[in-house]
């Protein structure tokens, strides 16, 4: 049964039972209405408690139903109206989560009791829609427009204690919320419920409300560039102000329908499920997430307390895993210790605000200079700077100090895992963990399997990622893995566009207007231009190793842009030096100003190389940069480095500022049409045969040839292809 009913003296307890998260699917709505109807008819029942089985109230509407007709059978809001109208008091007993439709259902109840560990919220905006079961109308009536907007637009999960302060919850309890709700229900039997029916109240307003809402729209446009859901949320809340509830509900529905037509909800919901799918990893050998048991990680060590190591140590402590943090000398250790303790203090403050005791959640971090102290840890994460020799030296030391079954992870953004694993006695226990900076905040983790990495090691690293609150994607070992590998052709196109007549700000604007958080030039300035320069120098693409007589704009017979090297040779490394593709107020400054010096250099460069200046249209800029990314994405699939398009999309959505409302780069390709992507790549490749990265990938051609199947079928096509290669 999707919902069950039991009786506790005069109180009926109706429990939603629909694993795993008690989503309000069509069977649940039917069962709820049935049980509710019977409880209201039963004269021995004087009050009703609504609860969720297995410690979760409800995660809201069943997202998988949105594209089916099931959504139309008993709407959530009709159900909520029935509950709110009840003459018998109804109390929601919130444990775990009450999200989206789950909170909307709770708002339709007359009272809400929550366990202290629970979270409530209206996260619909994160899946491209608005709370369309009365949430945009009841919440402002309960807590006022500003507080309601803050909860709705950010889609944040509000901890129970904060929800109590805001007035969303009536009572927070340390123990069982159902028992507390039954007690409250008994107390309120026979009381007047008029004021408790939120839909009958009016939203508190003030004369500046319209301008407040106008400002909110402007802010949301800037903050969520291109995302339609936050704007729709504000418009729905606007419709709640001094208007009857029915008016607002109609507007809510109408906005939901318009949003659906934009395609953004479908893209965001694809992104939502992709994040869950990547946890279900598979290995070319046949090993899978559900057949391999991870080992527990009770203690961990982090080596190197630079920016990455600090974030990783904090992440582990936050996940209640005691950490030993190691540095090479006393001074570095002291600096690292201060930084980690600072980050942990901030975490402790957040926990205190949630009414939780930090000591019970944050594990201790022990700082040391001695490798010998790592002898008992279950897992080590090495996070020193990107240098294979240095990492190998550390892994040699680990081989002699760690227990034989300790897992050894290297935090690298692209170095060869197999080469590092080869210096140990147990290459099967070595794995790459590519964290993104700041590691205690960024959600993405690329888990990189080497040739010899065992399935247990993979399972352990993937599970650790989940424990750290990350979205972990298993990828194969190749230079730069997935995320950074795709950047190569993208940045190349951006550089060629400068050669041909664009300026950094033109290219960045087009990509930022498209929704990418930071255009390629601002991104390079932030990351530091010297990083790529050093790599190119090592490869002999620039610097002294370049053979005399090599044309400036060619390497190994292919097109090459020396522009970034020219900047680096002048010490322009980006933000850190105050100059790069842009000019900054000072070294470390963050505000990028277009730089007349760069313009001048580009003019001279074009003259020197007799390049006719042809500024590209926004459409061409977008196509060249984004299709280069997509094409490399197909190659990564062909090579078996990522196992499906969802993996690439999750990486770009969570680590590279790709707008989630476009689903991901591969999802975007599917919406543009693979035929079109192929045509443009073919055209460009014909014009520039010296740019091999724009030669259409075999997999792309194959998918077009078999009639452009929907993205959910690509994984099978890739499987067949990789099998045949
Ligand atoms: C005019 C038309 C009117 C239409 C009205 C529409 C109104 C809509 C209101 C809504 O309620 S929209 C949904 C709002 N809710 C959410 O966005 C919550 C989404 N879920 C989460 O944030 C998390 O899943 C969680 C609840 C916090 C639990 O996190 P946890 O890490 O513990 O587990 P997961 O791996 O994320 O999820 C487990 C499992 O459950 C599936 N799932 C989660 N939420 C939903 C859902 N709302 N609908 C369907 N399925 C859901 C998830 O996909 C996982 O399943 P899988 O098989 O492993 O993929």
TrEMBL record:
Return the Gene3D superfamilies for the record: 1.10.1040.50, 2-enoyl-CoA Hydratase, Chain A, domain 1 (3.90.226.10), NAD(P)-binding Rossmann-like Domain (3.40.50.720)
Q: Which top-rank group of organisms is this from? A: Eukaryota
What GO cellular-component annotations does this UniProt entry give?
A: peroxisome
Q: What is its EC number?
A: 1.1.1.35, 4.2.1.17, 5.3.3.8
Please indicate if the UniProt record lists Transferase as a keyword.
no
Q: Which parts of the sequence belong to the 3-hydroxyacyl-CoA dehydrogenase NAD binding domain?
A: 300-477
- Which BP terms in the Gene Ontology apply to this protein? fatty acid beta-oxidation
Catalysis: reaction(s):
(3E,5Z)-octadienoyl-CoA = (2E,5Z)-octadienoyl-CoA; a 4-saturated-(3S)-3-hydroxyacyl-CoA = a (3E)-enoyl-CoA + H2O; (3S)-hydroxyhexadecanoyl-CoA + NAD(+) = 3-oxohexadecanoyl-CoA + NADH + H(+); (3S)-hydroxydecanoyl-CoA = (2E)-decenoyl-CoA + H2O
Q: Which compartments does it reside in? A: Peroxisome
Keywords associated with the record: Fatty acid metabolism, Isomerase, Lipid metabolism, Lyase, Multifunctional enzyme, NAD, Oxidoreductase, Peroxisome
Per the database record, which ranges form the 3-hydroxyacyl-CoA dehydrogenase C-terminal domain? 481-584, 621-709
Q: What is its main location?
A: other
This entry's Gene Ontology molecular function terms read:
(3S)-3-hydroxyacyl-CoA dehydrogenase (NAD+) activity; delta(3)-delta(2)-enoyl-CoA isomerase activity; enoyl-CoA hydratase activity; NAD+ binding
CDD domains given for it? crotonase-like
User: Pathway, per UniProt?
Assistant: Lipid metabolism; fatty acid beta-oxidation
What InterPro entries does the database record attribute to this sequence?
3-OHacyl-CoA_DH_NAD-bd (IPR006176), 3HC_DH_C (IPR006108), 6-PGluconate_DH-like_C_sf (IPR008927), ClpP/crotonase-like_dom_sf (IPR029045), Enoyl-CoA_hyd/isom_CS (IPR018376), Enoyl-CoA_hydra/iso (IPR001753), NAD(P)-bd_dom_sf (IPR036291)
* Quaternary assembly: Monomer.
Recorded hits in PANTHER family, A to Z, give:
3-HYDROXYACYL-COA DEHYROGENASE, PEROXISOMAL BIFUNCTIONAL ENZYME
Please give the family membership noted in the entry: In the C-terminal section; belongs to the 3-hydroxyacyl-CoA dehydrogenase family.
Q: What is this protein called?
A: Peroxisomal bifunctional enzyme
């Amino acid at each position: 049964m999707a919902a069950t009913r039991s009786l506790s003296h005069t109180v009926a307890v109706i429990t939603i039972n629909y694993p795993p998260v008690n989503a309000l699917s069509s069977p649940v709505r039917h069962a709820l209405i049935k049980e509710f109807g019977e409880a209201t008819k039963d004269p021995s029942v004087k009050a009703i408690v609504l609860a969720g089985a297995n410690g979760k109230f409800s995660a809201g509407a069943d997202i998988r139903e949105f594209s089916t007709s099931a959504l139309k059978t008993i709407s959530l809001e009709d159900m909520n109206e029935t509950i709110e109208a009840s003459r018998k008091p109804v109390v929601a007993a919130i444990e775990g989560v009450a999200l989206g439709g789950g909170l909307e259902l709770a708002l339709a109840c007359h009272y809400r009791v929550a366990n202290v560990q629970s979270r409530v919220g209206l996260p619909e905006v994160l899946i491209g829609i608005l709370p369309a079961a009365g949430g945009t109308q009841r919440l402002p009536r309960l807590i006022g427009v500003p507080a309601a907007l803050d909860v709705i637009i950010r889609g944040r999960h509000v901890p129970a204690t904060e929800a109590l302060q805001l007035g969303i919850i009536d009572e927070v309890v340390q123990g069982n919320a159902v028992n507390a709700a039954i007690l409250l229900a008994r107390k309120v039997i026979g009381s007047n419920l008029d004021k408790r029916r939120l839909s009958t109240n009016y939203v508190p307003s003030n004369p500046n409300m319209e301008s407040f809402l106008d400002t909110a729209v402007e802010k949301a446009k800037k903050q969520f560039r291109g995302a339609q859901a936050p704007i729709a949320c504000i418009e729905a809340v606007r419709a709640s102000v001094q208007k009857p509830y029915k008016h607002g509900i109609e507007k809510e529905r109408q906005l939901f329908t318009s949003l659906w037509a934009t395609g953004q909800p479908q893209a965001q919901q694809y992104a939502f499920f992709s994040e869950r799918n990547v946890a279900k990893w598979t290995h070319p050998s046949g090993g899978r997430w559900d057949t391999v048991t991870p080992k527990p990680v009770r203690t961990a060590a982090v080596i190197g307390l630079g920016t990455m190591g600090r974030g990783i140590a904090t992440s582990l402590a936050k996940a209640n895993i005691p950490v030993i943090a190691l540095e090479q000398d006393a001074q570095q250790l002291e600096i690292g210790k201060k930084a980690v303790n600072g980050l942990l203090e901030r975490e402790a403050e957040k926990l205190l605000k949630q009414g939780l005791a930090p000591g019970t959640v944050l594990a201790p971090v022990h700082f040391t200079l001695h490798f010998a102290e790592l002898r008992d840890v279950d897992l080590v994460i090495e996070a020193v700077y990107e240098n294979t020799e240095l990492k190998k030296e550390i892994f040699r030391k680990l081989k002699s100090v760690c227990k034989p079954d300790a897992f050894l992870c290297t935090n690298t953004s692209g170095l060869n895992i197999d080469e590092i694993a080869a210096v140990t006695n147990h290459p099967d226990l070595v794995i790459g963990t590519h964290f993104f900076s700041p590691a205690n905040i960024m959600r993405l983790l690329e888990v990189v399997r080497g040739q010899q990495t065992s399935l247990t090691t993979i399972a352990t690293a993937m599970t650790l990622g989940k424990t750290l609150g990350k979205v972990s994607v298993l990828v194969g070992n190749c230079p730069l893995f997935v995320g950074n590998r795709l950047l190569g052709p993208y940045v190349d196109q951006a550089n060629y566009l400068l050669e041909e007549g664009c300026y950094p700000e033109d290219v960045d604007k087009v990509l930022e207007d498209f929704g990418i958080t930071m255009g390629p030039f601002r991104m390079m300035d932030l990351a530091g231009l010297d990083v790529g320069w050093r790599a190119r120098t090592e490869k002999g693409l620039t610097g002294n190793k370049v053979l005399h007589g090599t044309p400036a704009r060619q390497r190994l017979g292919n097109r090459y842009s020396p522009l970034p090297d020219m900047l680096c040779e002048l010490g322009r490394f980006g933000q850190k030096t105050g100059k790069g593709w842009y000019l900054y107020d000072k070294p470390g400054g963050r505000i990028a100003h277009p730089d007349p010096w760069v313009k001048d250099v580009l003019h001279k460069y074009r003259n020197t190389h007799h390049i006719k200046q042809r500024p590209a249209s926004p459409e061409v800029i977008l196509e060249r940069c984004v299709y280069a990314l997509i094409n490399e994405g197909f190659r990564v699939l062909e090579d078996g480095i990522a196992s499906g398009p969802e993996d690439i999309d999750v990486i770009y959505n969570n680590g590279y500022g790709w707008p989630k409302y476009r689903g991901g780069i591969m999802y975007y390709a599917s919406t543009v049409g693979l035929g079109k992507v192929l045509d443009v790549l073919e055209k460009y490749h014909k014009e520039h045969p010296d740019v091999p990265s724009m030669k259409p990938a075999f997999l792309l051609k194959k998918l077009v040839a078999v009639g452009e199947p929907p993205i959910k079928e690509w994984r099978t096509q890739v499987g067949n292809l990789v099998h045949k290669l």
